[in-house]
């Protein structure tokens, strides 16, 4: 019986917001619990623990992912960016600024996941990724409101801040595009 | 247009919620739920769980410390062997890590003797009774004139029964408590609560402590919508567990367990009879409500109360009947009473408009009233008609085709609907202090809660105005029971109630200041209990009108909301930016109620089976296309020093009816049983 | 969640060697970790196959696709070749889950996700799939989104994959490496109907590892459509993958598969047979849909799926017919 109930531990390395951490984790530990309980990075939230709400969304090796469904042990060596890593040197990202400007949150609990997701949405659209509402799959989709709504649908917000969220993502998208053009 | 003051903290992840405080050597709790709906626990076998490395203790009715009785018997955790509903917490494991605790909880073996259970509400349930009062203190029944005769004599009649399912609040942050017993015997709770003072009071009572020996800290709360308005068993569980292992204990209710242990909106069955003259003038309104509570505690939702407020009619009756079932105790969910009640009333009004051949906006205007119909009291202000007119104008109501099922766009049917909303403008006694320091900075303290409402920001603006100071010189401290006592963030009464105490404290401070501030600073306090008692008698309510355009796929029964507009009359709007979010958020939840939210009870097991966010659908981003909120200017001197009414709940009140009425206009199909899913609508198309 | 040993496989052979009784392969984990946390799945060992060299998408000269089992759902849907050559497949993948889940989820894992049912997911309730012989509460319980086709007394669960519905319509082949070497399984034979062994979702043997999916060329118009209770991020009530070739007003070739209606992606062969060679007109589409749905045996609360599936077949064929 003991072998069935005794926790199994293993050592892993995670690079979180640019800092490398050597950790001993229970194989069962989610990336989310590891961030929150072991590293004290409580910005990423637990809303459902089953990939059904998106509050735990982080950037995992550059892509958005539900940290609750990712086993920490399976992501040994991964680079993780959490909401705490979105601002650079205390300067808020365009997405963070737009969320404030558009009042794209109320209670704030889904917000870290929304922000990480929105950051990735801009990147995915920039790479020409389509979505379920993209009419013409052969071209590069334009990030209009319908596209933003579909792409942000993996992040539930019970306060109902979606109208602000869509505006914020649109605003951040325009701003990043303008900056990219200038550069 | 002020940004939320905690905006930066919320977008950088710095805002801490209950589970997130650094505690020294915390342990983790996991709960075991009853697997029968009614009966007795005969044995709790914790041996296997206790053998698991890392398990610290197992708590249950066999070893739990004695707790003191409080009115909410849901808090009598592990105090008896009786199981009152499936999913009730019957044991808890405390362990070194969450993974260990959760796994060990599966190894706690509980044996039961089960009894036949009864979990199905019906309008002819033999156990139905008339409660002494409905939440919080309204009469269960009211009657004026001769409603039966007036109904029978009416030229136009509507007799219809509407049902709303059980719905779960599902705030994004689960109900969470981190509990720590301090060396001096005091208890500190980091808790996801809508009211740190009332939670402190209740928990102190449960553990037999002085109020001053409990401190509840909750500066940020991840939504509540009523379900965190009173402490839930999770608070007691965490505190009990922390006492047992003499370490801080953290407990967040897993989403699945929330469906049994953190409250929900009762299902309702509502029969409406409306009798009117041929032109639509109402003669008779009869609203009969059937709903449920548990065997643990009585909670009677005030579903028919809005019917007592909105429309004029000489003959009227409202009634509430309650069945006590073997189910979890229902509780507050955003606009309890008004939300299900106005779905039924405003659906019935739409049916009446159709039957009488009167425009639905005009029908509501025709039956407007300048006195509260049942009490006879004058309204402190009432601008329902202005909301209807302004909304109709902005929304383009004149483009609505009154003929149902007439507007096709490809394979989609398009239609528009309207519904009125109302919500009481409550006010409750509160305390606050205001302080000025020698550097000229102000600090205002009150144990208010900001559960996402923007309360922190609104109170800062209110204080700054009362102090005649710039808002950036004012700090408002909230979310901690060590601050002056405040009432719950509920009943849309927060800003009005807390704000009044804040204004009075600030006025008192200004009176003391006399232009100069001594080196030690100055402080003043206020208690609004007397002021509230002395208020003139008025009927105080916010009103609104909600307009919706839907498209219905004729092949699939999918309903999508294209546009929604709410126009509200809610006194003075303190902070337009956060107020707009409140209104829109309420309407968004109303879309959920109309189209997807439903907790499904399995009679055989006695629990809600679709108990996660993949099965209990709340609106996703793609469901919300174009929602806007506006308000009419309303100057009401009979409310409070700010002239404000509450705005947190009225947004949801008329939303579901306005969607359902739009579906009728689009398709000709009247869905009287929410939610309007393809499974319900398609067979009728 | 029961404690388990985690191992990362370095090759398919290595994965097979590490696989023992009680072991599960781990892809993205989006379904497996979910079920482990519910106590529904209790592996003693996870063999991580997500980093095996099965991460490529190859367009072959004949127009067929070879998709590695470790390709993420996102990469599959974003692949420009797939979007051009097999749009129905990209559309189906994009209709599933959320952007963040699709980033984690793999092609192999998507195929092997378990069927869905409220009772299967609640370890405190009976379920023949979880606990053979314990009964099926869904038959008389909450089943408004469960099967109307091919179910059994023992189980009425539905397969949730969108991608697999498109693959079923496209006659894909699943490449498997097993104890006895490599073999290819037609997608129609991968998933099972529940019968009296609902605990088995697929016909794979213990230790079998999916290495790739092969999709034949597609040179006719195709489309995926999904009906759900909210506008996004929800499982299908009914979904449909269709490919249709109309020439001179006559149906030359047609492929139809339905999702959300059965324990496996449901290939609507009766509808297809009815249509082949028939005029591409609404009445024929209707007749074909009726022929297929004559097989339906709806439960108390899911009869709406019959007209829903019928309407979807007609509507999607009509739209594609107009396109071709």
TrEMBL record, chain A:
It comes from Actinomadura napierensis. The keyword Glycoprotein does not apply. The keyword Nuclease does not apply. Residues 10-86 form the 2Fe-2S ferredoxin-type domain. This is 2Fe-2S iron-sulfur cluster-binding protein. Keywords: Iron, Metal-binding, Oxidoreductase.
Automatic annotation (TrEMBL), chain B:
InterPro entries: Ald_Oxase/Xan_DH_a/b, Ald_Oxase/Xan_DH_a/b_sf, Ald_Oxase/xanthine_DH-like, AldOxase/xan_DH_MoCoBD1, AldOxase/xan_DH_MoCoBD2, AldOxase/xan_DH_Mopterin-bd_sf. Residues 12-116 form the Aldehyde oxidase/xanthine dehydrogenase a/b hammerhead domain. It comes from the Bacteria. PANTHER family: ALDEHYDE OXIDASE 1-RELATED (PTHR11908:SF132), XANTHINE DEHYDROGENASE (PTHR11908). It holds the Pfam family Ald_Xan_dh_C. This is Xanthine dehydrogenase family protein molybdopterin-binding subunit. It comes from Actinomadura napierensis. Keywords: Molybdenum, Oxidoreductase. Gene3D superfamilies: Aldehyde oxidase/xanthine dehydrogenase, a/b hammerhead, Aldehyde oxidase/xanthine dehydrogenase, molybdopterin binding domain.
